[in-house]
User: What shape does this take?
Amino acid sequence: MDLFHVSTKKYHVGQIIKAKDFENTEYYQNATNQNKNWIDEFLDINKPANAPERKKAIYAFDCVENCVAFKGQNNDNFYYKVKMLKPIACPMSLTDALKREDEENNLRIANEYWNYNENWKFLEYLSSEMQIIEIIPPPNIILVNKGKMNYSSDRELTQRLLTLYKKKQ
Assistant: This one.
């Protein structure tokens, strides 16, 4: 399956990137700097055995428009078509729904994140390894807006799930 990756790093076609080559990924370092690394640690504790650790994962998306919605429009970004080794798909917007003081709902969110049942439009793919297949041009404005709509749709779905979870308490 072809996936898409965005990075400020310049890679070449054919290059293989392995998560084990990094002490911490750029993503995890940013999460740590923002005091949000607890989210990855919580999800890692609750992950299935076959899933990579989030803090050691390489991320991609199933469409280039979701790359730009994730990283923003920036002239320093490079866009790639990639192939990943045994990728695991997870709904990214659920990571924003985790709250430190709400373990019961967090467990439900973690379950939906790793074993989703809903019709999510903005999936992040996690893997321990990816290969660069093609360097692609930045998405046009139509794709940029589509990526934003995908994420917005998933945020609405997340809010509906949280409402259901609270009714179950």
In short: Residues 93 and 155 are 6 Å apart (CA to CA).
